[in-house]
Amino acid sequence: MKPQEMVDRILKADRRAAARLMTMVEDQSELASEIMKDIFACTGRSMLIGVTGAGGSGKSSLIEHLIGRFRKDDKKVGVVAVDPSSPFSGGALLGDRIRFQKYSLDDGVFIRSMGSRGYMGGLARASSDVVRIMEAMGNDVVIIETLGAGQDEVDIIHIAQTCLLVLTPGMGDDIQAIKAGIMEIADLIVLNKADLEGANSCIQSLESAIHYNLKKDKDVWVPRVVPTIASSMQTAECEGIEDLYQNIMEHQAFLHKTRRIDTVHAKRIEQELGLIFKDEVEKTVFAGLKGTGKKREYIESIIKGNNNPYSVVDEVLSTFLRTEKLE
Amino acid sequence: MKPQEMVDRILKADRRAAARLMTMVEDQSELASEIMKDIFACTGRSMLIGVTGAGGSGKSSLIEHLIGRFRKDDKKVGVVAVDPSSPFSGGALLGDRIRFQKYSLDDGVFIRSMGSRGYMGGLARASSDVVRIMEAMGNDVVIIETLGAGQDEVDIIHIAQTCLLVLTPGMGDDIQAIKAGIMEIADLIVLNKADLEGANSCIQSLESAIHYNLKKDKDVWVPRVVPTIASSMQTAECEGIEDLYQNIMEHQAFLHKTRRIDTVHAKRIEQELGLIFKDEVEKTVFAGLKGTGKKREYIESIIKGNNNPYSVVDEVLSTFLRTEKLE
Q1: Would you call B93 an interface residue with chain A, using a CB distance cutoff of 8 Å?
Q2: Within 10 Å of residue B326's Cβ, how many Cβ atoms?
């Protein structure tokens, strides 16, 4: 498939072309960046929802029900599931096949699991590119799912406009621990498995944490606690999903009414710039080192005690980097 | 404290000086790299043990008992606990205080929790520097604890010589999922909470996974499954800890006997070079962009649709990077 053909097909929501570009992005192909440039103008208009929460919180099940709710409105939905643990587990690939089976025949739903690919990583950058590709395909909503641990996941969740933090009752100390950070990341706190013991006191303690941390600014969004019951996949019903959906829509309306959405767009682009930057710098510098035999020499001199990694990096950087500032 | 004084004190195992340098490393102070250069020659002689496993697997409790076992031999022990989730939780700071209380008055034990510090991150690099500092203090053993998810944690666990993967019975599908990756990362698989139902079948399935993946090379280390029972901290006994300790010592003996330890040292240095590299490149490039107003301009042009992040990065990189190869 030629680049231009790939661009055309993706803009017509061709699933195979999109999947192929996503793989190119993961493989850090040079061509991928060129194609991304071409589709970029057709992105930036989707609703981006981040869903973060620990394993076992019922995230996937909730997302399944959220997809269903958006499909009722005939919205096209993309899901990017970020799973950095996959260098250990291969979980991402497996995940693609076994999760969200319900929607495997629905052309209005496109799911992609992202796993780490060894040292050079760039998982957050690749995930952020995949979100752009899903937008170019014309998805109205893109859901970004993360476990909420690790830098890559923090980086990627900052791309989202409306961020859901999924908790369950009985997390006890964990909830204490995250209180401090709640205001920073979550627009909506979903207390899933709200039929379990301790749900009410959990809701109360979350709400008092929210109000304790509340800034007294006008026009500020006050995070809300939304109880849901979606404990296992493939269940027909999910209590509270309509309420969650309404709250998401209200947060989106808030962003647009207050023009806060402009800041959100700018922050997303700043974040993306940082991610692409890091990735490209590494690629360029590592490419310059590769195949020169110089790296092996450096390592040997360090092992022999004639050098140290800090001085080696100083030396290499002075070769590659100009230190002047941009005008 | 002057740099030279700090170096001298750290080499004499002064805890305050070491803690201060660790904070400087986390804060990415310029001076920190200079001091690291000075202490580097006094590092590289400790036994490095990686302990990775999901939350709830009893990792901390196991490590507590391992510390106790090494203390019996009068070995000095350092622990670096890597917790990238702390931008959400503040867990790392809290952790410092509440974990391993048993050893808070023992001068032969030094514990440091590492949390992520916002976008510029560099958690793996900082953790790797902290391991070097612990070596410079004269710790015989340094234990690196991670949750085993996320790129930072994968990066740092590759520093270890002997890697323990902690699992529990009843992880079911998780165990299936990690089978593929087990051979790559774990020298010893610790099945903790081995008194729980399903422990025996779990051990069997792990062992068959090991033998299924086994390369037929001579002199290859065959990962072993070691059952333990260490479910809660502060317990007096931990069944299987002596067996685990013996297996660790046997793996270390194997590394030294086969000279495999040389490869392990070289890989560690290669990994460190990569981490320091990434970190320093980012610092230099970002410093060049900072305060020029240029960044804001770029973001605005992207929002207006006149540019895209991929082209912006190309432009900035061509300003900063020389693309020639090292001679």
Answers
A1: no
A2: 16
